[in-house]
Amino acid sequence: GAVVSQHPSWVICKSGTSVKIECRSLDFQATTMFWYRQFPKQSLMLMATSNEGSKATYEQGVEKDKFLINHASLTLSTLTVTSAHPEDSSFYICSARDAGPATNTEAFFGQGTRLTVV
Amino acid sequence: GENVEQHPSTLSVQEGDSAVIKCTYSDSASNYFPWYKQELGKRPQLIIDIRSNVGEKKDQRIAVTLNKTAKHFSLHITETQPEDSAVYFCAASPPSGGSYIPTFGRGTSLIVHP
Q1: Per the CB < 8 Å rule, is A93 touching B105?
Q2: Contact present, B34 and A106 (Cβ < 8 Å)
Q3: B30-71: pLDDT as tens digits
Q4: Which residues of B touch A1 (CB under 8 A)?
Q5: Distance between CA atoms of B93 and A100, rounded to whole angstroms?
Q6: Contact call for A104 and B104, based on CB within 8 A
Q7: What's the CA gap between A51 and A54, in Å, rounded?
Q8: Sign (positive/negative) of CA torsion A58, A61, A63, A67?
Q9: Tens of pLDDT, residues A56-72
Q10: Residue A115: which of A93, A89, A94 has the closest Cα?
Q11: What's the gap in Å between the CA of A59 and the closest CA on chain B?
């Protein structure tokens, strides 16, 4: 199946600093990528939908100025957590769908990024 | 928007038993229903999916059923093995323009005791 690579797998940063997470589709083009946040033993909470070449669509309650999303190419989307605080510590996962025919198809997930803010 | 309810939140079975996880959805326009398995600290991986034009799909020990009228779908795992232990997520996807946005259930933690 298709491969989505997310980097880094884990990161520890100081409070107040910014962290960038990359999500790459390695063998397919993705017009749309999704960013999720997952707390321990909880479900995948959609944060935003990242569209190549246009602004991301954020879910209600997600601060767009804090979670900056850039989708500059068909194979790369980035999530930047700005001015991180301990409450931003979480598991962030991206997923991508092949830019093929507009029918529902499998979403491929990255391996996730464990962010710890100290 | 779509709302997906998943039950139970935790399921504990003995090795060899069957496990059933149930989900309901709210948007009758949803037409794609994937199931994902997520092991601790790893990415969710698709294990089976079903589209709204069929009522049942089977892949070895895993099967999924869909009742469009009642808007519910279920995952069935037979002859469970310890390696089936993981968190399972259902999702429902209504079409949205040229793409779709899956809404996930809250997850079911399946524990298979040897």
Answers
A1: no
A2: yes
A3: 988 999 999 988 889 999 999 888 899 999 999 999 999 999
A4: 46
A5: 17
A6: no
A7: 6
A8: negative
A9: 999 999 999 999 999 88
A10: A89
A11: 11
